[in-house]
Amino acid sequence: MKLSAFFDLASFGMKTVLFKKKDAILGTIILTDKCNLKCKHCSVNNITAIVHPYNQIRDEMRRLYDMGIRILFFCGGETFIWHDGDKSLRDLVIEAKSMGFLIVNVVTNGTFSLDLPEADLILLSLDGDRERHNAVRGDTYDTIMNNIAHATSDNICFYMAVNQINKDAIREVCETARDTKNVRAVSFNFHTPYPDTKELALTKEEKTECCEVIKQMMKEGAPVFNLKSAFPYIINNSFPTPCYQCVVMENGKLSICGRCIDVPGLCDQCGYFFVAEYTLLFKGNLKIIFEMLRTYLKYV
């Protein structure tokens, strides 16, 4: 992270904590819900299968920037599917950087060529060892690992959604992150149980066991991009929701925190680690503040 970006984000954080502001700093744009996979835990793919046009995405980027957003995520569906004429995902990342966003990240399932060195992080979904990942996402593990090996930058971060299928593969994913070229870190979430995927949700006891494994892997030197100070809040779903500092833009609609905010009762079962981390950060939790500083400076 550039020093100027660090100071800008730190200034936002201090103002938010001191003056109890609810301004957003992190924005996500959904480029499309079209996806080449049908993952067992996903409730938001191929609902419309519309690929939103470049001019619309650019206007949404400008709208978020004018709101004060400085950390931008591009999500799907599958982001690398996105094209509009001769415009590609790379053009969007470059446009976002030139517009002034300080951090620009991309979320992907990893089944397309990973040639995107302009992104600060490519958050790539790896949901276990070969057997359990393929049980969640279909026969894609070997394709993903081959794409990682041939990636043009070391800006990849694994992004694992822990559920009933893969809950015993956390150690394997941590070790793969540690030992794989071009992979910088691994970030975890717990499955958020949309109505059609409730059976994949973890119990409180299972979340506790998973967090113990993650903490152990941290002790062993695994590059985990999560804050262990937030684990008790995540296990108990005791962090405040929604996160007002995060917004999602999809086809012109702005949602606070995430798309799941429209599903009654789902916020109370939120499994997104970053939501807990950000809400606790902007509430002024000192342990979270110092751990986030250390973690972001190391991996972003």
Short summary:
By secondary structure, this protein is an alpha/beta fold. It has helices at 3-19, 54-67, 89-99, 130-137, 141-149, 170-179, 204-219, 231-236, 273-282, 286-299; strands at 26-30, 71-75, 83-84, 87-88, 103-108, 121-124, 156-162, 183-190, 246-250, 253-256.
What features would you highlight for this structure?
globular, 300 residues, single chain, alpha/beta, TIM Barrel, two-stranded antiparallel ribbon
Plain-language structure description:
By secondary structure, the chain is an alpha/beta fold. The chain has a single domain, classed as TIM Barrel (Alpha-Beta Barrel). It is 38% helix and 16% strand. The protein has 10 helices and 10 strands. An 8-stranded mixed sheet has the order 8-7-6-5-2-1-9-10, with helices on both faces. It has a two-stranded antiparallel ribbon with strand order 3-4. The relative contact order is 0.13. The model has no long low-confidence stretch (mean pLDDT 94).
Q: Which CATH class is shown?
A: Alpha Beta
CATH level-four homologous superfamily name: Aldolase class I
Q: What's the order of the H and E elements?
A: HEHEEEHEEHHEHEHHEEHH
| CATH fold group | TIM Barrel
Question: Judging by the overall fold, what is the CATH architecture?
Answer: Alpha-Beta Barrel
Number of domains: 1
Number of strands: 10
Task: List the uncertain runs.
Answer: none
Helix content: 25-40%
Q: What is the average of the pLDDT values?
A: 94
Strand content: 15-25%
**Classification by helices and strands:** alpha/beta
What is Rg?
18 Å
H/I helix tally: 10
Largest sheet: 8 strands, mixed
The geometry reads as globular
User: What is the rounded distance between the termini?
Assistant: 6 Å
Q: Order of strands across the biggest sheet?
A: 8-7-6-5-2-1-9-10
